[in-house]
Design brief:
Elements: H1 4-19, E1 23-32, E2 35-45, E3 54-62, E4 68-78
Antiparallel strand pairs: 1-2, 2-3, 3-4
């Protein structure tokens, strides 16, 4: 079984390959059956200053071999925006 750290790394690599943009970081993950559901944050548009960047969150699923089985952009937002619960 793939470790959480390896699943996160593989998901970030898949998001980079699918979007052509580098992953900023993994912001969430959980077990999904035999694989992992991993949420990855990406800078979609670089702006000056950096606080004006447009970020996106992608939800992915990787199987026990680290292969991508699901991928979708969940939301986009400005870097400086604070979410409230």
């Amino acid at each position: 079984m793939m470790s959480a750290a390896e699943a996160a790394k593989r998901a970030a690599e898949h998001v980079t390959a699918m979007t052509g943009r580098s992953a900023e970081g993994v912001v969430g993950m959980e077990r999904a059956g035999e694989g992992w559901r991993v949420t990855v944050e990406v800078v979609e548009t670089h702006r000056i200053p950096d606080s004006a960047d447009i970020l996106a969150v992608y939800e992915t699923e990787v199987d026990e071999d680290g292969d991508l089985v699901a991928f979708r952009r969940a939301r986009r937002y400005n870097r400086g925006r604070v979410e409230r619960d």
